[in-house]
Amino acid sequence: MRDELAGFTIGVTADRRRDELAALLQRRGARVVLAPALRIVPLADDSELRDATRICLERPPDVLMANTGIGMRGWLEAAEGWGLAEPLRAVLSQAYVVARGPKARGAIRAAGLHDQWSPDSESCDEVIEHLVERGVAGQVIAMQLHGDRQPECTEALEAAGATVIEVPVYRWAPPTDPAPLHRLIDLVAGRLVDAVTFTSAPAAEALLRAAGDRAETVLEALRGDVLASCVGTVTAEPLVRRGVPVSAPNRARLGALVRQIVDELPRRTVTVKAAGHLLTLRGHAAVVDGELRPLAPAPMAVLRALAATPGKVLSRTALLRTLPRGADEHAVEMAVARLRVGLDAPRVVQTVVKRGYRLRVE
């Protein structure tokens, strides 16, 4: 098949670049569930940002720690609105500029500033280690925050003798409409998506927070059937800390993230031979002898259960446990019938009288 992700369902938790990421995944055949876990609230009119800007003008920083491209652009745009853009650029041009990643570096250079250093890992920890080793005692450091405060970074620099000016350019807030996020949580808990993408660490935290008392169920799904795909190691940290095996590209880019998913998801599929056919199970479809056959959730659940133990007879009671709550044994029969029609290979699923069903593997 030309569409590498055809038959897979992927959740997207990003807000700002969700359409771009969704388009990249859909272009490769995936079904996408959009569910922003957070939204960015700009602080252009916020008094804290204005105060931090004035402090930078009064006490020109020796070091500028630029964490994000959107943050640096937002800061300079806000300063433009206050008539402070040129004075701010003047003081920042004298600072030792550290750009945490390429997006921050791009914003720095677009503003006519010059960056002197960036970490290979794009992590704040490596930036702090570099600055402390370089020596910051007696220096003023302007730290452009990315979302929430980073007290551990500030404290480490202050412990090394620096004065830190925290610059809050935007903050995270819950999505305006939480319904899509709760729907995605339902899908993850029910193993009805194949992967969930994360482009920021706060988004991962927000998903688990929104899950509430189902957070452990969601984590168990992410530890097993559902791939947690993160844009980079910094984004992955909240999940790694909770024992989730994550997939992350070497370069923190959306294109690289999609390529990683294209490489990894097909390798996680189950392939069986039954009744002379080759079946590969994907998230919401089966590939039968190279042909994609989309299936509804109930027939797909039955096929997964049968494919887990090819040739073994599963009773209606056992298959009933794979279906949504409230289903009865008649629902199992209907799901099997729909499965046979959907596969367009009726001999694949064999009825064993008075016992149940199995995949015909002989």
From TrEMBL:
Query: Is Secreted set as a keyword in this record?
Result: no
Which regions of the protein are recorded as binding DNA? 267-361
Q: Give the SMART domains listed for this entry.
A: Trans_reg_C (SM00862)
| GO MF term (any one) | DNA binding
Q: Which UniProt keywords apply?
A: DNA-binding
Give the top-rank taxon of the lineage listed in the UniProt record for this protein.
Bacteria
- Any GO BP: phosphorelay signal transduction system
| Gene3D superfamilies named among the record's database cross-references | 3.40.50.10090, Winged helix-like DNA-binding domain superfamily/Winged helix DNA-binding domain (1.10.10.10)
Q: Which residues form the OmpR/PhoB-type domain?
A: 267-361
Report the InterPro entries cross-referenced here: 4pyrrol_syn_uPrphyn_synt_sf, 4pyrrol_synth_uPrphyn_synth, OmpR/PhoB-type_DNA-bd, Sig_transdc_resp-reg_C-effctor, UROS/Hem4, WH-like_DNA-bd_sf
> What name does this protein carry?
Uroporphyrinogen-III synthase
**Classification of source organism:** Bacteria, Bacillati, Actinomycetota, Actinomycetes, Micromonosporales
